From TrEMBL:
Pfam family, one: DUF8151
Domain DUF8151: 1-78
Annotated TM spans: 12-32, 44-65
This protein's record includes keyword Membrane: yes
Organism: Haloferax elongans ATCC BAA-1513
Superkingdom, taxonomy of origin: Archaea
Protein name stated in the entry: DUF8151 domain-containing protein
Keywords for this protein: Membrane, Transmembrane, Transmembrane helix
InterPro entries membership: DUF8151
């Protein structure tokens, strides 16, 4: 039996949160990496090195959120919608 839209709403909201969170973390990580590059170019190596590490951490969490949370939840929702 196909589930109704109300039954799928929590799963779809969770999927939306994971997707938006992963995209936001990716954008933040890219911005921090750009800041790190500019800091190093202007001669501030300490701040640039710290920013590189922080940008990589943000990008890593974006990757983990996308692969560990978003992708499995997407498969689950797709399989639920494909049921007859």
């Amino acid at each position: 039996m196909r589930p109704s839209a109300v039954e799928l709403l929590p799963d779809i909201l969770e999927l939306l949160v994971f997707g938006v969170g992963s995209a936001a973390l990716s954008l933040v990580g890219a911005y921090i990496e750009q800041f790190a590059l500019l800091s190093v170019q202007h001669g501030n190596l300490g701040l640039g090195a710290w920013a590189v590490v922080m940008g990589l951490v943000a990008l890593y969490f974006a990757y983990l959120l996308g692969t560990d949370k978003f992708h499995p939840k997407l498969r689950e929702v797709q399989s639920t919608l494909a049921q007859d």
